[in-house]
């Protein structure tokens, strides 16, 4: 089923909104079906100061999933540019998604895993298919299995069937679909939620062929996605409309939330978004209105009280610990014996030297005198 | 100057030479050059742009995935007798073969009744031997020695035969001469019962993934050749009390015996850390003495945003163990279940992540040190949690046999009995074979579906190595060497994974047609324009010639007058 909200799409862009063209943050959250653990990855592929809002989109989603309990170790955040330290940033070290500048979404606790020129199509594909170089650190790997739910959040400048990375290259919908089918083939996910905020976003998930993927996009083919909130202080817009609407809804959910995707979808107001968001559940087994947002956005660990402890012996008498200490003792023993011998020998030698000296001096003096 | 003029002269001469006879040849030269370019250039271009794809042993890969050979796991039992206890040969002739046959046929029957759709046909094979009198100091996995001892000498509380299943691979049966055949019966029943449950468990573990595994399986972390264990002491409020611990001593005493036992299958890397100011994200509920948290609050216990639990291990699964010390004002902090009954262990486990134990040391001291002795309850909780996280399951050997069978279900010195260890090894062996087989199948399907993907020879080598290891596993199993087979299966799955995740097999695999045009047009357009125009021109000329030939029946169309291509000809 491919659902889109009908709205007149033509030329309703007004002055404050500009068209998305280049950045793609991705967020992956793996949350096993049994609500075991979680992981999340974000990638931002937009460069340049004027794409500030894409970084802000991604960071805002990053804050949301982190608040909902996904630790940094399970989040892969890819930001193609460093807005916080951009010389044109009037608020150094901070990124805001709202002109009131109340919440710094960059903050002092952010872990960007792929940054700047590391954010490439190749690295993205490597990351999700698991074909990373052997020396890649854990924070840059997607270590998911068949119990993991993954949230992809991408935003940037795109077009029909492609999303621009770094203003230099692009990933197309076939490549993402291929990568997902490879992931499925190797059981690297249980379910995927694919969320994309870009122009003609719905084209990006139209080529998917692997099961268990739920997709939501900001705009139909032929439509642009628009930005929101012009910040006169920074001189640019700070967030995209579709992401803003989502974040607004996410604000009210917590780890125990029972909100489903259809609840979220029903809040999409095309008057605000100015494009027609769509979703795709063709490859998704569960019902749209019964799939909880926290299945992807949050991580609720499955905890179980340990019934009984394992009684262990107080004095271990067996095994290597014993032999280990024994050998150590033996070695210790021989060492001390050796030391004693050396000690005695040394003193004998010293005594002999003194005697020799005494004899020699006596002899010399005797002779001399 | 002279050279230049000479050169010019020569060129003129050459022109003079070519012009008269060039009329026919000149016209053919462009055609020839086009032909040559196409004949040499096209194959060269084709070869150059071809994606290199090594020839993988596709049939074998698919065969292992879809139709693998039956896996038979051997269980070898040996029975040794004290003097004069063996049933006399005229009473029970060939009792060993008889027991062996009975158990094997029961296992076979059970396997046939078992309607599980497994992707891997697994069955157990029981072997029984009379002891050859060898000295068995160390027995290999799945090799058990049953010593029949005289009852009077052993435990003498009652005269019933007693089979003592110890925590090692050496079992003891106490019997008397009269009851020796009855003892064998008890042995047969217990072993059969054990093997049937094991067979069921093994088959369950490779059942097709349509049915979700039991909740027990969800806790367990999949097999990995390496695990990383991180022990953390979490002190909520170091200002009121500073806590330290003798973790090295405690690990050496309580944890290492277990890890040493498991080290035949995996490596364990152990680290420890102390974290301070680890505030809980959930406020504990106050009660008349101390505070408590309920089981609903446990999933949110881990403050993942603030506690530094990140692992530096690139791939190895990390298992965390936290000893949590609450602040003095909330002590004692206890865990209560949904019925508000305090937990006995005060510990809980998070699936696939690790275990937590809350400890409430006396708060009168400024500095509290957990010595090895004080850490024992914690370590006992951790050992129990680690067992569950690795999927070590208690074995069930008694069913209606309690009177005559005594089973050591615990191993206080090791944390794992040999029976449990062997059972885990069998399960991991089967999972490794299945993982290797399915990975090879996936690799083959993936390579076939992505025609633009480069497949290097190194992939082929890895794949054939993995296939060899798989064959080796089956071969070694038939000779009864379980641990050797396990090593081979671990290698097989490792190699298959390595082949699948090879970093070379990445790239843009889909190219839109526009991109292809955009790449080739700048190269070929300038070159092809004159060639195409001359070919078109010749074709037009040829047609015209044919027309004139028909009109004038000119025998030599190439020498026809009015050829505009070579005006100097005229």
Automatic annotation (TrEMBL), chain A:
UniProt keyword list: GPI-anchor biosynthesis, Membrane, Signal, Transmembrane, Transmembrane helix
A molecular-function term among this protein's GO annotations: GPI-anchor transamidase activity
GO BP terms, alphabetized: attachment of GPI anchor to protein; GPI anchor biosynthetic process; proteolysis
The keyword Hydrolase is assigned to this record: no
Coiled-coil blocks: none
Transmembrane segment boundaries: 340-365
Protein's UniProt keywords contain Transmembrane helix: yes
Pathway note: Glycolipid biosynthesis; glycosylphosphatidylinositol-anchor biosynthesis
Active site location: 157, 199
Highest taxon listed in the record's lineage: Eukaryota
One protein family per Pfam: Peptidase_C13
Alphabetical list of InterPro entries matching this protein: GPI_transamidase, Peptidase_C13
A single GO cellular-component term on record: GPI-anchor transamidase complex
PANTHER family (UniProt xref): GPI-ANCHOR TRANSAMIDASE (PTHR48067:SF1)
Family: Belongs to the peptidase C13 family.
Protein name: Glycosylphosphatidylinositol anchor biosynthesis
Protein species of origin: Mycoemilia scoparia
UniProtKB/TrEMBL annotation, chain B:
Chief location category: endoplasmic reticulum
Biological pathway: Glycolipid biosynthesis; glycosylphosphatidylinositol-anchor biosynthesis
GO cellular component assignments: GPI-anchor transamidase complex
Pfam families tied to this protein: PIG-S
Membrane association type: Multi-pass membrane protein
Keyword annotations: Endoplasmic reticulum, Glycoprotein, GPI-anchor biosynthesis, Membrane, Transmembrane, Transmembrane helix
Region of interest called Disordered, as start-end residue ranges on this chain: 545-570
Transmembrane segments: 517-539
Any GO BP annotation: attachment of GPI anchor to protein
Compartments reported by the entry: Endoplasmic reticulum membrane
Domain of life assignment: Eukaryota
InterPro entries for this protein: PtdIno-glycan_biosynth_class_S (IPR019540)
Family named by the database record: Belongs to the PIGS family.
UniProt-recorded name of the protein: GPI transamidase component
């Amino acid at each position: 089923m491919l659902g889109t909200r009908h709205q007149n799409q033509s030329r309703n862009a007004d002055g404050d909104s500009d068209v998305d063209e280049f950045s793609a943050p991705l967020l992956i959250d793996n949350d096993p079906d049994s609500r075991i653990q979680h992981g999340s990855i974000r990638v931002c592929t937009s460069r340049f100061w004027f794409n500030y809002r894409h970084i802000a989109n991604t960071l805002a989603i990053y804050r949301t999933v982190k608040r909902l309990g996904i630790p940094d170790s399970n989040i892969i955040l890819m930001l193609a540019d460093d807005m916080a330290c951009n010389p044109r940033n009037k608020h150094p070290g901070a990124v805001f998604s709202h002109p009131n500048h109340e919440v710094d979404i960059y903050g002092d606790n952010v872990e960007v895993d792929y940054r700047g020129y590391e954010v490439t199509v190749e690295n993205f594909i490597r990351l999700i298919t698991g074909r990373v170089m052997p020396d890649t650190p854990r924070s840059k790997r997607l270590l998911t299995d068949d119990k993991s739910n993954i949230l992809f959040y991408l935003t940037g400048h795109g077009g029909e069937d492609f999303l621009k990375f770094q203003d230099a290259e692009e990933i197309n919908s076939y490549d993402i679909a291929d990568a997902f089918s490879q992931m499925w083939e190797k059981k690297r996910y249980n379910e995927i939620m694919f969320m994309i905020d870009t122009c003609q976003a719905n084209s990006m998930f139209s080529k998917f062929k692997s099961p268990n993927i739920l997709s939501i996009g900001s705009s139909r083919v032929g439509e642009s996605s628009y930005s929101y909130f012009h910040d006169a202080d920074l001189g640019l817009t700070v967030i995209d409309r579709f992401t803003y609407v989502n974040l607004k809804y996410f604000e009210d959910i917590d780890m125990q939330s029972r909100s489903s995707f259809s609840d979220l979808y029903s809040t999409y107001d095309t008057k605000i978004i100015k494009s027609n968001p769509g979703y795709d559940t063709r490859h998704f087994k569960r019902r749209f209105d019964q799939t909880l947002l926290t299945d992807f956005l949050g991580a609720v660990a499955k905890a179980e009280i340990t019934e009984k402890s394992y009684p262990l012996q107080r004095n271990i008498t067996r095994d290597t610990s014993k032999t280990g200490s024994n050998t150590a003792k033996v070695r210790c023993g021989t060492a001390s014996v050796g030391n004693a011998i050396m000690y005695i020998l040394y003193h004998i030698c010293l005594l002999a030297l003194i005697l020799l000296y005494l004899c020699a001096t006596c002899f010399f003096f005797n002779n001399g005198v | 100057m002279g050279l230049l003029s000479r050169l010019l002269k020569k060129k003129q001469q050459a022109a003079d030479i070519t012009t008269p006879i060039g009329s026919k040849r000149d016209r053919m030269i462009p055609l020839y050059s086009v032909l040559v370019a196409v004949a040499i250039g096209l194959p060269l271009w084709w070869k150059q742009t071809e994606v290199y794809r090594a020839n993988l042993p596709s049939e074998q890969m698919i065969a292992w995935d879809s139709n693998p050979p039956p896996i038979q796991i051997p269980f070898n039992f040996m029975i040794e007798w004290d003097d004069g206890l063996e049933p006399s040969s005229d009473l029970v002739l060939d009792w060993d073969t008889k027991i062996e046959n009975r158990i094997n046929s029961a296992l076979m029957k059970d396997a046939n009744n078992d309607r599980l759709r497994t992707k891997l046909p697994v069955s157990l094979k029981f072997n029984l031997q009379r002891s050859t009198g060898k000295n068995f100091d160390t027995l290999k996995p799945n090799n058990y020695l049953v010593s029949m001892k005289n009852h009077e000498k052993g435990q003498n509380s009652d005269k019933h035969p007693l089979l003592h299943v110890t925590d090692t691979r050496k079992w003891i049966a106490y019997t008397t001469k009269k009851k020796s055949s009855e003892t064998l019966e008890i042995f047969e029943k217990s072993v059969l019962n054990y093997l049937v449950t094991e067979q069921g468990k093994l088959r369950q573990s490779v059942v097709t993934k349509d049915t979700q595994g039991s909740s027990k399986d969800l806790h367990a972390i999949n097999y990995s050749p390496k695990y990383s264990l991180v022990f953390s002491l979490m002190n909520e409020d170091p200002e009121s009390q500073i806590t330290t611990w003798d973790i090295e001593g405690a690990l050496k005493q309580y944890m290492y015996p277990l890890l040493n036992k498991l080290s035949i299958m995996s490596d364990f890397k152990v680290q420890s850390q102390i974290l301070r100011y680890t505030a809980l994200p959930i406020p504990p509920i106050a009660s008349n003495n101390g505070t408590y948290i309920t089981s609903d609050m446990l999933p949110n216990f881990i403050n993942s945003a603030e506690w530094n639990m990140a692992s530096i291990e690139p791939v190895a699964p990390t298992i965390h163990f936290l000893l949590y010390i609450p602040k003095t004002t909330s002590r004692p902090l206890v865990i209560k279940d949904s019925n508000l009954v305090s937990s006995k262990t005060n510990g809980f486990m998070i699936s696939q992540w690790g275990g937590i134990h809350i400890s409430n040391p006396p708060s009168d001291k400024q500095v509290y040190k957990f010595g090895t002795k004080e850490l024992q309850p914690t370590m006992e909780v951790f050992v129990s949690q680690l067992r569950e996280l690795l999927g070590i399951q208690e074995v069930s050997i008694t069913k209606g046999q309690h009177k005559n069978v005594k089973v050591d279900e615990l191993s206080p010195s090791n944390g794992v009995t040999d029976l449990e260890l062997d059972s885990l090894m069998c399960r991991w062996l089967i999972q490794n074979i299945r993982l290797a087989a399915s990975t090879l199948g996936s690799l083959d399907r993936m390579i076939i579906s992505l025609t633009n993907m480069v497949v290097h020879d190194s992939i082929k080598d890895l794949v054939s190595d993995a296939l060899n290891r798989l064959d080796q596993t089956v071969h070694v199993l038939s000779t009864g060497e379980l641990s050797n087979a396990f090593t081979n299966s671990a290698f097989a799955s490792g190699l298959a994974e390595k082949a699948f995740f090879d970093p070379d097999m990445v790239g843009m695999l889909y190219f839109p047609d526009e991109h292809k045009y955009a790449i080739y047009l700048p190269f070929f357009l300038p070159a092809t324009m004159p060639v195409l125009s001359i070919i078109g021109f010749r074709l037009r000329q040829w047609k015209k010639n044919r027309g004139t030939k028909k009109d004038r029946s000119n025998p030599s169309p190439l020498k026809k007058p009015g050829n505009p291509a070579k005006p100097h000809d005229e």
